[in-house]
User: Fold this.
Amino acid sequence: MIYVFSAQKPASLGMENKTIKVEIIKNPKLPKVPSDYNEAEDQVYLDITGLKPEELKKAVNSIKKICKDSFWGIIDPKGASSDPASFFFMGASDYIGPGLVKKGLDKKRLAQGLSMYNTLDKISAGQKDHSKAADSRADKKHIKLPAGKFEGWKSFNAGTTSNFFMLYVSLSGKSSVHTSAGENVFTQAKGKLRNILQNYFNDADALLWMETENNILFLVPPRAVNCRAAVEASLKLILNSRLIGCENLGLMFPVDFTCALHYGRTAFQKPGKTGAVIAESVNYIFHLGAKKAEPGRLTISDEVPEEALPDGLIDLFNPAGVFEGIPIHHTKRFLFK
Assistant:
C-alpha cells in the first residue's frame, strides 16, 4: 500500500491509476500512519503543496518518527521546493516532482524507489564486520588525484561533473542546540558559526556549498594537499569545540562538532543554486554525517584515498564497520574534562 499525506486527490498527484493502490490521508500537517501500515512493504509519501516552512519542518519530523528506518518520500506537484536535494539529506528515499506528476505515475516508477531503498539497506545491513572494513582499505585500488595547484572555484562551470572531497559539519549539544539556546541566540550563533567554519577551512580552499538548519556541507578541491588541510582543520575544530561554543558563539552549554568526509562525483553548481543537484555521493555524505558519524569525531569513508590523509595521522582512524556499502573509519575519541 502507498500512503500519501495530502489534502489533494490522487489525480492531482499523478496517482489516479488502477494499478496503484493509494490511500490519501488528508492531514499533511500532522501525519499519523494507519494501524495496518507495514514498514517492510508499504511506502509513505508527503505532499508538500501549501505547507508553510514551519509546517513542512514539523511534517517531515513526524514522517521520520513514523517511518524510522523505513521508506518515505516527497511529492512536490507544483515544484514548491527550491532545493529538492535537501529532502534526501533529511533521510528521504524518493522525490517526485512536477514533471513526473504531470506525466502520471505508474506502479513501476514507485516500485523503483522502494527497490533502490531496499537494495541499499540490505547492502548496509549485510556488511558490518569490522575486519572486512579494515581489509578493504589495504586492498582498495589506488585513486589517482589530480596534480598541480587548485585554480579556484571559478574554474568550475555550472553543470560540470567532477570528483570532489565532501565535508559535512554539524554542531550538537546534549539536546538540540536550537532548543537549548533559544531562537534569537541560535540565529546569532549560526551566523557566527558560518564565518568561523569558513576561516577554519580557508587553507583547504573549501567552499561552503550547502546549508540546512543543523548542518553545513563543504566542497573541497580534489587534491591531496587540500584534503589534508581539511582533515587537520576538522580535528582542530573538534578539539576547540568547547572554546568555540563559549567564547565565539556565546553558548552557555558544551557543544561538539560532528564531521564526516567522503570522496565522490557530482555536478557542480554555485552555492545558492544547488537545488537541482541530486547525486548519489551527495546523498551519501549527508546520510553518513546525520546517521553514522558521531559527535566529537571525524568519520571518513573508504573512498577517501590514504594519500589524502596527513602524514602521521592515519593511525588515528579506527575501522567503524560499513555504511551503505562503503567501509568507514572514525577518529579515536577525544576526552574533555
